[in-house]
Amino acid sequence: MDRTTYRELRFTPRFWGLVVILGAFVAAAGGIVLYVEHYGHIVTGMNNQIVWGVPHVFAIFLIVAASGALNISSIGTVFGKKDYKPVGRLSNLLAVALLIGGLAVLVLDLGRPDRLVMAMYTYNFTSIFAWNILLYSGFIGIVALYLYTQMARGVPEIAQKSAGMLAFVWRLALTTGTGSIFGWLVARQAYDAAIMAPLFIAMSFSFGMAVFMLVMFMTTGISTRQFPLALRTRQARLLGIFVAVVLYFTAVQHLSAIYVAEHAGVERFILLEGGIYTLLFWGGQVLIGGIIPMIILFSKQAATSGRLVGLAAGMIVLGGFAQLYVIIIGGQAYPLEIFPGFEVSSSFSDGVINAYTPTMLEFGLGIGGVALALLLALGGMKILRIMPDNATE
Amino acid sequence: MTSPLHREKGAELSRRDILKSGAALATVTLAPGVTLMAFGGKKAAAGEDMPADGLKPGARWGLLIDAAKCPEDCSACVSACSAELGWENNGLETDPQWIRKVTLRDKETGRTNSLPVMCQHCESPPCVDVCPTGASFKREDGIVLVNRHTCIGCRYCMMACPFKARSFVFAPVSGQKSIAPRGIGTVEGCTLCVHKIDRGDGTTACVEACTATGNNAMMFGDLNDPDSEIAIAVATYASVELRADLGLNLGVRYQNI
Amino acid sequence: MKNLLTSLLAVLALAIAPAHAQELFPSIPKALGEPHPEGNEYWRINHPALLAHDRDLVVLEGIRDVDASLVGCVVCHAVNGPDQGPVPMPVNAGSPDNSCQVCHQFVAIEIGCFVCHASVPSKEDVAMILPQYSADDEGWRAYMEDLAALQEASQ
Fold it and tell me: What was the ipTM of the complex prediction?
């Protein structure tokens, strides 16, 4: 029986400071959306060769992290680890907030975002994108229900467990769908791989836990609350394992592709000759997002030092952005193989590595989505009794 | 025994309160959508009664392109398409290109070749599969089009197309041709001159232009009509599809690549 | 009681106001060609649904022989702009004098059609919808002059 007391976050000067900063970023993103909608996407760095850019990197990161953030409450409810139970409500809230932030960026980058309502009742069910829209909206509803079972008085244990199980299975379907957005594209050399779905599941575990821990430290910073050491130690170790799993799936993805002669070109591009993409892969994803955090998290000091764990979590987030940049944009930078065995040139950039220079507008939109997610999470923590009131050891 | 602390107004709402506010929220959110569907659903019912007299029954329009007859320095097809449909490519990466001339060089033998590439009007188009709203669709006669009324500009079809057939409109458009409406924020591509086919011209702008130059590298016709020139040609002479390994059954076939 | 009286007055005010709006009603420019057999009132009320229905017939089914084709609207309902050279040219939907905009700006409903569709007819369009004009410069000039005459007559 969960004896934890839950409280709202209190109004502190730091709380307000954070709200103001986040609000400014959200407002900036709003201005960017109006600007891009008026003048067209020509003001961004995207073009006919790189059609999905930095906003999509941010959006997919937020969506993947959202699904992973739910994991923490699943560990408590579905897998019964009692150390995780007190942060279950925070996990649910953060999952919904991150998803809304990610969706906001995705939807506001559409060419015709004014047609969104029409998109909600005109469905093409062969499209994994359409399924994702249903999965995302369903996720919000199911997690809201799950949060209700956690918060309302007199709800039987079985209801919470069922809601938790449903949410867990739903989020696996959602992340599989997100990975399949890329995995089911036969056209591009870098995609068309079944492993994209499990890779994204692994990424969700890793990014979700890392983002959750960063948010935990953020609330610690603006309030007097401290999370129990036992929880933080377990989370740090688990995060290390998640990072290892992501590295494993990445290795399998690239080793399999290298083995196939057809994909040798794109693998050479990503792993060796891709300039920024190679740098982001080895330096960003593997080193900063993988090996170094793993060393930190499996070290003895990580068990007690919040700062070290926070550093590792931050590096994992950066590595995650690098990974998605390589997947989403690197996959488009490599040219389509329309004529295997031929060198190709045309007036439409056939046969050449496509260049992409993101503008501040795209970063502004993406960061606005992150800010929106955090703002919603803070709002939820203020209005609802989300924060566990466990005494520190 | 609940302490006074727990009686204060807080998040521990009673089930009834939550259900009441939830119901209100759901009604407010769903009502507009339900109304829209109730009044917007007419078109489906009307469409089923209409005879498909706009389309030639059983047709499958396609192109046959002979790369051997296509000179490297000729782009009459591109200019014709551009003039007919009202798009322009001035070299910017954001400019549309519905049809383009591609120059090939065999990596092993060094032989060079050139041919035009446009939307291949697949029978199993990946762009139609992935479009979330169904804006990218295939007509009964095999022409793959973008219904720009429904397109939300997500560009997923551009990610999915193996032939880079589609372009996105990056800036506001003015001075459109009335036979080719095109506007900001939607995706576009080769329409196989559907406006010409529907008014009975029996050819496309690119094929017309190629024939006019005397190269005769392009042929248009009904692939399903055994008596048509194109059907006889593909049944007699060897022709291939681009990326045949994908198994998409294309409407555009090439000879002598 | 006070709330009830206030809301009653507000409702009355809203009910009376439209009656006076008759004087504010926009003057819709006259159009060339035969009038619609169903009557102007029918078309004014139903044109959104008719356009949407017929556009699906055209785009999805290839049935081009429809009543509510935008090209048809644009040809007959063209309005000439003021003094644009030797022969005045029709204004596009960006101008408030455009016959669609005259009403749409009055009711403050944005027209989405002309983001993509041409709001000015071409010679071929004119010849197709109004066969009395030929698809060349001669026919175009006759069309322009008839439009100008129509506008002057309705001044």
Answer: 0.92
| C121 Cβ under 8 Å from any chain B Cβ | yes
Q: Are residues B30 and B129 in the same domain?
A: no
Mutate to test the interface with B, among A37, A49, A112 (most CBs of B within 10 A): A112
Residue C23: its pLDDT value, please? 61
Give the closest of C52, C59, C71 to B178, CB-based: C71
In a domain, residue B4? The reply is no
Residue B52 has what pLDDT?
42
Please report the pLDDT score of residue A302 as a whole number: 83
Q: How would you class B184 by CB atoms within 10 Å of its CB: exposed for 0-12, middle for 13-18, buried for 19 or more?
A: buried
- Taking the CA of residue C26 and the nearest CA in chain B, the distance in Å comes to 27
Domain assignment of residue C120, given as a range: 26-153
| Together in a domain, B107 and B156 | yes
Query: How far is CA A237 from each of CA A130, A210, A312, A313, A319, rounded to the nearest angstrom?
Result: 37, 11, 11, 12, 18
In a domain, B33, yes or no: yes
Domain count, chain C: 1
Do both B122 and B155 map to the same domain?
A: yes
Residue C9 is assigned to a structural domain of this protein: no
Confidence of residue A336 (pLDDT cuts 50, 70, 90): very high
Residues in B closer than 8 angstroms to C92, CB to CB, are 174
Q: Spell out a b/e string for B59-97, using b for 16 or more CB atoms within 10 Å of the CB, else e.
A: bbbbbbbbbebbeeebbbbbebbbebbbbebeeebbbbb
SS3 A50: coil
**pLDDT for the residue B24:** 56
With vertex at residue B1, the alpha carbon angle to CA A389 and CA B6, rounded to the nearest 5 degrees, is 40
Contacts of B15 in chain A (CB under 8 A): 152, 154
Closest CB from C64, C70, C121 relative to B54: C64
Nearest chain B residue to C56 by CA: give it: B43
Residues B148 and B31 in one domain: no
My answer on whether B121 and B220 are in the same domain is yes
**Averaged pLDDT of chain A:** 93
Distance between CA atoms of residues A50 and A332, nearest Å: 6
Mean pLDDT for B3-19 is 51
Whether C56 is in a domain gets the answer yes
Domain span holding position B23: 14-50
Please list the ranges in chain C whose pLDDT falls under 70. Answer: 17-23, 83-88, 155
* Amino acid in the structure at residue C66: V
Per-residue model confidence as pLDDT tens digits over A110-168? 999 999 999 888 899 999 999 999 999 999 999 999 999 999 988 998 999 999 999 99
Domains of chain A (ranges; CATH) run 6-336+349-388 (1.20.1630.10)
Residue appearing with tokens 């918060």: A151
pLDDT digits (tens, 9 = 90+) for B44-87: 333 333 334 568 889 999 999 999 999 999 999 999 999 999 99
**CATH number for the domain that contains residue B87:** 3.30.70.20
Question: Do B121 and B33 belong together in one domain?
Answer: no
Specify if C8 maps to a domain. Answer: no
**Within an 8 Å CB–CB cutoff, is residue A11 touching chain B?**
no
B118 and B32 together in one domain:
no
Number of domains in chain B: 2
Kindly report, residue by residue over A8-44, the tens digit of the pLDDT: 888 889 899 999 999 999 999 999 999 999 999 999 9
User: What is the chain B residue with the closest CA to C94?
Assistant: B174
Q: Do C60 and B173 touch (CB under 8 A)?
A: no
- Indicate if the alpha-carbon torsion angle A10, A11, A15, A21 is positive or negative: positive
**B31 touching chain A per CB within 8 A:** no
Q: Do B156 and A48 touch (CB under 8 A)?
A: no
**CB within 8 Å: B178 and C52:** no
The verdict on residue C135 lying in a domain is yes
Q: Which residues pair with B187 in a beta bridge?
A: B168
Give the mutation candidate from A37, A133, A186, A345 for the B interface (greatest B CB count, under 10 A).
Answer: A186
Q: What is the CA radius of gyration of chain B?
A: 25
C57 to B173: CB separation less than 8 angstroms, yes or no: no
